[in-house]
């Protein structure tokens, strides 16, 4: 057998996963937040802001006050962090074999280069400022804040807008089809009719509730040293209120301060967030399976322009619900990762172990599969048309669903004093259970019950397509 090309050696490199391969355009917005490069940029941001914060607050006696130009120079190191800097940092890490230490050395190089930009008199060029870099910090002081910033950015700038757009589209569909009657199927069997819009509104409300939880989530952070005691801080500079310095710094970053930690920030906020996102995913999965079923029943038609030209490689007549099937698969993968993150991150042996370090590197993948599913659901919904004729035909073939209305009207009439209304459930069960009943048969049955005239006329006028109660009005709750 001839030797094959070793694909691992092909240039440019071939991606191992689908998110960085065929689905890259959809998940690309997350790269700016949850990639390895974004993590290192966030670490650099935290290190620089810590240096500036210590000098601004006077927490370190003898430390210079930085000028606006010097602060601008430091912050530009983060803003200009690109391909060349990523490569340089990777080179440093190959020597340090420690990612956070590599960031520290990278920043020290920029301090050494400051005089060539700001002039020899800059405070950034001496050992004094250099010794402030990473002072009193364990790696987790930098990492927990960097991850909190990254996840917050990913959720607020990428995931939440995409999720909200899908839910808004679904809400628009619910309003549009608020009055379109549809046969319900409890346990897969014909049941009391609803409206298509009301069913979509139920899913919309469920998804919105999860979005509110996610949008209101806290992102916690700490910077308190090797075991959360400010031990080195208090010994080296006992006159500084280190809790206040820590609190104001974390809040300056836009995060919520956690005053009680071990070496690590406990990650409980991450577990809460990932559980909420996973729950959103699962409700969206419910939407995908329901819409798939409605397509199968013929309630929805799929526009060819929205699905592409090929439905099946061998059956040319088919238009497959691929968007919803793709979404199902990606939501399941996302939930599996989010569940693992939430379960793993809340536990750390004694004061520290490194399981969280490896686990958190999968946050981007978890959100990537969810983002991909959102894109597929949105495109899938946009390609649907309601077949009202099929809905109406299905309703007309199931007059037996009016049995609930008739027996309930009999009960109410009996309570109001009408006679001859005994055993309403059993009488309707005998008429309808396990058999199809058409309109004439149902009306004949109603006419023979001896109901009060107004009740009888109301039931004789009832059809499956009009037996939808307050369904169309309930959609208005989406506005609340």
Summarize this structure briefly.
The chain has 22 helices and six strands.
Chart the SSEs and their pairings.
Layout: H1 24-27, H2 31-34, H3 36-57, H4 68-79, H5 83-96, H6 99-118, H7 127-130, H8 139-176, E1 181-186, E2 189-195, H9 196-215, E3 220-221, H10 231-236, H11 242-252, E4 256-257, H12 268-297, E5 300-302, H13 304-307, H14 322-345, H15 355-359, H16 363-382, E6 384-386, H17 388-396, H18 403-415, H19 424-432, H20 439-447, H21 453-460, H22 471-474
Parallel strand pairs: 3-4
Antiparallel strand pairs: 1-2, 5-6
Description of the molecule:
The protein has 480 residues and is mainly alpha-helical. It folds into three domains: 33-130, Fumarase/aspartase (N-terminal domain) (Fumarase C, Chain B, domain 1, Orthogonal Bundle); 141-392, Up-down Bundle (Fumarase C, Chain A, domain 2), CATH 1.20.200.10; 398-479, Orthogonal Bundle (Ribonucleotide Reductase Protein R1, domain 1). It has 22 helices and six strands. It has helices at residues 24-27, 31-34, 36-57, 68-79, 83-96, 99-118, 127-130, 139-176, 196-215, 231-236, 242-252, 268-297, 304-307, 322-345, 355-359, 363-382, 388-396, 403-415, 424-432, 439-447, 453-460, 471-474, and strands at 181-186, 189-195, 220-221, 256-257, 300-302, 384-386. The chain has a two-stranded antiparallel ribbon. A hairpin with a 2-residue loop joins strand 1 (181-186) and strand 2. Helix 3 packs across helix 6, helix 4 (68-79) packs across helix 6 and helix 12 (268-297) runs antiparallel to helix 14. The model has no long low-confidence stretch (mean pLDDT 94). It holds the Pfam family ASL_C. Keywords: Lyase, Purine biosynthesis. Belongs to the lyase 1 family. Adenylosuccinate lyase subfamily. Its EC number is 4.3.2.2. This is Adenylosuccinate lyase.
